[in-house]
Amino acid sequence: MSETAASQNPADAKRLRVDIFSDIACPWCFIGKRRFESGLESSGLAQDVDVYWHAYQLDPTLPEHYDGSELDYLAKAKGMDPAQVEGMLQHVTAQAAEEGLNYDFGKLVVANSFTALRVLEHAKQQGLGGEMKEALLSAHFEKGLDTGSVDTLLQLAADVGLDAAALRTALEAGSYADEINADIAQARQIGVTGVPFFILDGKYGISGAQPAEVFANALTQVHAETVGAS
Asked: What pLDDT score does 228 carry?
């Protein structure tokens, strides 16, 4: 699975493009990423698929910094019943564990994801989008790091091999905001109302963190159609 620039080369006609809209502050997006990866692996098409990550904000109203837990935020800011929130967080933690992910909502730092998504866009343009996406999701849901902090984001970027100084300069200049807003506008235009959302071959949509088998079957079917049409 790789993230590459779009190509018009006829030799690439048998490759399958997958566009994924997701947010680094969305717990189901990390689960969906793992399930998609499992489905891709079992389909045997891992070397024939190019993945393109797109930004989405599940909750753009999140503050840059919130002095409280995820449970506090959802209960107070969103008006949800605390017991319901607790049950919801336990459920998603259990689902994540089944995919080998160690969610820790007790340590999670509530933060707006816009700056992190700008960092991801920078990484994509440097050919490290997949690595940065993984690092951001893990930092937010497993490690309790503040993904709203520029210093934290720069360290994560450096850890995946990016030039932190160049990234800081880009962030200070306001770079990549237009790309994030364009992704969000595109999602709205095609009717995406929740993430993760997967688009296969620009035509087939899969909504949510579906079981790995769903992804495997869809990839196999769409790839066969793509190859047959080439």
From this structure: 65
